[in-house]
Each structure stands twice: as C-alpha cells, then as structure tokens.
Amino acid sequence: MTARILFLGPLADLARTPEMEAVTPLDWAALLSLVSQELAEELQGERVNVACAGKVLADKTDLLAQDGDEVALLPPVSGG
Predict the structure, then answer these.
(1) CB burial readout 52-63, b (16+ within 10 A) else e
(2) What number of CA atoms fall less than 13 Å from residue 42's CA on the CB side?
(3) Fewer CB within 10 Å of terminal CB in the chain, N or C?
(4) How far is CA 2 from CA 51, 58, 65, 79, in A?
(5) How open is the CA angle 15-7-34, to the nearest 5 degrees?
(6) From which residue to which does the signal peptide run (predicted)?
(7) What CATH number did the domain enclosing 26 receive?
(8) 10 preceded by cis ω (within 30°)?
(9) 19 belongs to a structural domain
(10) Would you say 73 and 48 are in contact if contact means Cβ atoms under 8 Å apart?
C-alpha cells in the first residue's frame, strides 16, 4: 500500500527527484523522516503547502495519506 509524493518546482531540486512512493498510511512526521534534513526544514516553512488526494490541507501537519493518494508538496509562489 503506497502513496505517491510529488515534489514540485525547487522542492524537486532539493529532493533530487520529482516524485517518490511511500508506505501508507503516511502522516506528516513519517513524510519528514523520508526526506533529507534540508528538505524537511524547507517543508516545515509556513510558505510551503501540501495537497493530499487533490485537496490543499489547511494545516499540513494533518496529513494522513492512504493507499493510492497523491501528496503534492507545493513550493512558495514567487511574484513578479
């Protein structure tokens, strides 16, 4: 049972991959333990959002991905 994790934009550069699979159920602490310390610190920043199963989470620490879910890690949007 797995979920697909998508690293978007510069988060893919930090992860050194655009996506990975993780065993489910997958909560926030488990997600942070799967990635490098540098990426975990970036993900914990308030400007990074998390979507699970197509819905952006109001509080990313509420993440609980189940089998077949897609978790998208959304980097801060830059203006211009």
Answers:
(1) beeeebeebeeb
(2) 18
(3) C
(4) 16, 23, 9, 35
(5) 55
(6) none
(7) 3.10.20.30
(8) no
(9) yes
(10) yes
Q: Does residue 17 sit within a domain?
A: yes
Confidence of residue 80 (pLDDT cuts 50, 70, 90): low
**How many domains does the chain divide into?**
1
The token duo for 68 is 């077949």
pTM: 0.93
- The answer to whether 31 touches 37, Cβ cutoff 8 Å, is no
Pair 75, 11: CB distance under 8 Å: yes
Q: What is the pLDDT of residues 11-62, one digit of tens each?
A: 999 999 999 999 999 999 999 999 999 999 999 999 999 999 999 999 999 9
